[in-house]
């Protein structure tokens, strides 16, 4: 069980106001293994806590990434959940790592598989320069996801804004705090933590009790508080997320240590949202070269696996898939370098580019930066020996450079100066 309160204000009038204020509790068995919030080792753009339960490792309950994608999940109260259902925490993790679907499209996809999970509520959001979007889907409610209007919302273990007493009282308390414009950022966080740690019981509650048919009376009573306390189960994590009008994010987590309700650790993270690279249609490979010059790493992310037409003597040739060799796109960006760069564009790679990468044979285009000295450029113009194989990598401007590629006889290599 969990509870979330949030205020969504995509275009706040004041620069000191917030586009999002979110306060959430994670309620769970105290002994369930989990990792406190931090940036992922496998993806440093993503910040969240992680489930470490066997078979559900890597799932999360709430997280955000530096590109402005946010997701949160709560369980739907049910007396007899299916033990073989898929883990709901992956609904959050998968959204944060997904690069193709927006918040609504992701929920649309999830809704098609909603029957594979026990009851859940899922919030997905995007905070971008041009538009902020928050969407909601619950697999025990409407079959269609919802795009939410600006406002204040509450979500517990029923559908969005279901009038449980704990939700209504908590939402009222939350609203009084977020509407207090005299609070500093630190003051706001502290007041929101007070909202989340209210242990006052809101029983009896006929609406909650009706949905909790099958739960013991003591447990239903314990679950009637915003901050749940029982011997082995309850609130073990508080999270506050603030996103302001200047793209600054503050993520504060207060989490229980060693299953001890008197022992807590508080962590805070601050970062600035980063915009995804957006690229206009290209009229030539030279256009891509200019874009790559601006930000090589972003260009690699944007074009890997996409369709691109090849430049053959300044004439557009057949479209093909672009492949970025792993190891290149994770290298540091070279946008601050004043040296001219060269990009390699070749079609129909004939032999192995790397012995361990046979999939390169099915790739139409391979792109990578070349060294820019005339003597080094000339070796690209020389026809390679028929049996020559790949090979040599060289470090240049912090980007890995492949120096040999074999092309079909009727193709040429067109390096582009930028």
From TrEMBL:
Pfam families: TANGO2. InterPro entries: TANGO2. One of its GO terms (cellular component) is Golgi apparatus. Signal peptide: none annotated. It comes from the Eukaryota. Coiled coil: none annotated. GO terms for biological process: Golgi organization; protein secretion. Transmembrane segments: none annotated. This is Transport and Golgi organization protein 2 homolog. It comes from Channa striata.
């Amino acid at each position: 069980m969990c509870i979330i309160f949030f205020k969504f204000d995509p275009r706040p009038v004041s620069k000191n106001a917030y586009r999002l204020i979110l306060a959430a509790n994670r309620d769970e068995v105290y002994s369930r293994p989990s990792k406190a919030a931090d940036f992922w080792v496998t993806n440093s753009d993503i910040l969240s806590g992680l489930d470490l339960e066997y078979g559900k490792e890597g799932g999360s309950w709430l997280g955000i990434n530096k590109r402005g994608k946010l997701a949160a999940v709560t369980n739907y109260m049910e007396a007899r959940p299916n033990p073989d259902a898929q883990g709901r925490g992956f609904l959050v993790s998968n959204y944060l790592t997904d690069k193709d679907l927006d918040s609504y499209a992701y929920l649309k996809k999830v809704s098609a598989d909603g029957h594979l999970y026990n009851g859940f509520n899922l919030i997905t959001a995007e905070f971008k320069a041009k538009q902020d979007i928050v969407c909601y889907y619950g697999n025990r409610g409407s079959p269609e996801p919802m795009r939410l209007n600006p406002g204040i919302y509450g979500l517990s273990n029923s559908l969005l804004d279901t009038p449980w007493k704990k939700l209504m009282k908590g939402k009222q308390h939350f609203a009084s705090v977020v509407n207090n414009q005299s609070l500093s950022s630190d003051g706001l966080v502290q007041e929101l933590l007070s909202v989340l740690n209210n242990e006052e019981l809101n029983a009896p509650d006929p609406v909650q009790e009706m949905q909790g048919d099958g739960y013991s009376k003591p447990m239903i009573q314990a679950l009637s508080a915003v901050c749940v306390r029982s011997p082995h189960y309850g609130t073990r994590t508080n999270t506050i997320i603030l996103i302001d009008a200047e793209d600054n994010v503050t993520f504060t987590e207060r989490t229980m240590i060693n299953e001890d309700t008197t022992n807590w650790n508080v962590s805070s993270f601050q970062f600035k949202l980063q915009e995804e690279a957006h690229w206009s249609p290209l009229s030539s490979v030279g256009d891509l070269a200019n874009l790559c010059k601006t930000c090589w790493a972003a260009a690699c992310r944007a074009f890997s696996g996409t369709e691109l037409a090849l430049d053959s003597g300044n004439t557009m040739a057949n479209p093909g898939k672009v492949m970025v060799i792993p190891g290149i796109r994770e290298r540091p960006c070279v946008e601050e370098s004043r040296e001219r760069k060269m990009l390699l564009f070749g079609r129909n790679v004939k032999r192995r580019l790397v012995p361990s990468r046979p999939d390169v044979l099915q790739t139409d285009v391979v792109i990578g930066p070349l060294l820019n000295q005339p003597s080094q450029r000339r070796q690209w113009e020389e026809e390679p020996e028929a049996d020559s194989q790949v090979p040599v990598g060289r470090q240049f401007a912090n980007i890995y450079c492949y120096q040999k590629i074999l092309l079909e006889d009727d193709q040429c290599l067109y390096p582009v100066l930028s």
